[in-house]
Write a structure and sequence with these properties.
The structure holds 2 protein chains of 2 kinds. Chain A is mainly beta. Chain A has 3 helices and 18 strands. In chain A, strands 5, 6, 7, 9, 12 and 15 form a 6-stranded mixed sheet that branches. Chain A has a 4-stranded mixed sheet with strand order 8-18-16-11, with no helix packed on it. The longest helix of chain A is centred in the N-terminal third of the chain and has 10 residues. Chain B has a domain of 34 residues. Chain B is elongated and about 50 Å long. Classes of the chains: A mainly beta, B alpha+beta.
């Protein structure tokens, strides 16, 4: 899917060309795996992990970073999680940059009153330690709205939250809400109306057992029209995610 | 996470070796050692060129031995360049 967007992926490690060839053959990897045997390029980027003594096998590895680079070499965006156990998933990059999710990425349709919501993950599969993304598309019938933050006490802002032991950290952001005077409250509050989309991220723990897991979440909101306010609502939902086992190259002699 | 990160590479190496030994033996890694290992490895985390800057020129062989650079790697909209640990371990 990333290629359909005019992007290519390449990956740099300090492995030998032979190791990379075995790895690519075993897992049928078509992207370019680049061999930076003496870590010279890793050094020139300034991302060599300098914590690792020369006597250790890991000597020469980089701090994991991903760059989105224009064809002329300009860095457009940089992705990293400042912990070697975690990576940003490519699907997360594609969802954020292009609003596209992977094939078979799971989603759910939710409906309540004047509001329909579609919530989906950027990918159907992930590895432990990856940061994946999710979207939440909201559509309200004309004349209805839900709320952004901050709000006066007693009203419910719109939020999407995931629960469960697989998630280490999460975030969710909606587009900026429009400050609107609501006669019902006699106050100006941040309001969302019409159709809009929020984006979030889920940092998966490392390690996790591979296999299928269910990510349980809930979306909270309060829908109001110009003259009626429904009670605050919370709709639970579930999205499946398959955690893949880690891949290791077959030993080359 | 209260733990002083040793400046000394040998001290860090001792933590990494012990961590590696337990993992290789399939034994559980005590939480304290896990934390020490994460902190020692992530010390001075550096992320390289910032958005708006250009990456250093490079030319590296791919898995087939073909020399590659941004010019022959990027698609019309660019390149996602991923630096990772290793395909071998």
């Amino acid at each position: 899917m990333i290629e359909a967007k005019g992007l290519r992926i390449a990956a740099v490690s300090y492995d030998s060309q032979e190791t990379l060839r075995h790895f690519a053959e075993k897992y049928r990897i078509r992207i370019a795996l680049l061999s930076d045997r003496d870590s010279a390029v890793i050094r020139s980027f300034g991302i060599l992990n300098t914590n690792i003594a020369p006597s250790l096998r890991a000597h020469g590895v980089p701090h994991p970073v991903e760059y989105l680079i224009a064809p002329d070499g300009l860095v457009l965006r940089k992705y990293f999680v400042a912990n070697y156990q975690h990576r940003v998933a490519a699907s997360s990059v594609v969802l954020r940059e292009f609003g596209v999710v992977g094939a078979e990425a799971p989603f759910v349709n939710l409906q309540s009153g004047a509001l329909t919501i579609v919530i989906g993950l950027s990918t159907a599969t992930a590895f432990a330690g990856q940061e994946i993304a999710f979207f939440a598309k909201f559509a309200l019938e004309p004349g209805w709205h839900i709320y952004g933050a901050p709000l006066p006490e007693g009203q419910t802002a719109t939020s999407v939250t995931f629960d469960g032991p697989a998630i280490m950290r999460q975030s969710f952001e909606l587009p900026e809400a429009t400050p609107t005077r609501v006669d019902l409250f006699g106050e100006t509050v941040p309001v969302h109306s019409g159709s809009f989309q929020g984006l979030g991220s889920l940092l998966l723990k490392f390690p996790l057992d591979d296999g299928r897991i269910i990510l349980a979440g809930r979306v909270s909101f309060q829908q109001c029209s110009d003259n009626v306010c429904e009670a605050p609502e919370m709709i639970p939902f579930e999205l499946p995610l398959t955690l893949e086992p880690f891949m290791v190259a077959p030993r080359s002699k | 996470m209260a733990y002083d990160i040793p400046e000394d590479l040998q001290e860090k190496a001792a933590i990494m070796r012990e961590f590696g030994r337990l993992r290789a033996a399939g034994q559980p890694v005590p939480e304290e050692l896990q934390t020490k290992h994460v902190n020692a490895t992530n010390d001075r985390y550096a992320t390289g060129p910032e958005p708006g800057e250009c990456i250093p020129d490079f030319s590296l062989p791919d898995q087939e031995g073909v020399l590659r650079s941004v010019a022959n790697l990027a698609g019309p909209n660019g390149l996602l360049l991923v630096f990772y640990r290793s395909a071998d371990w």
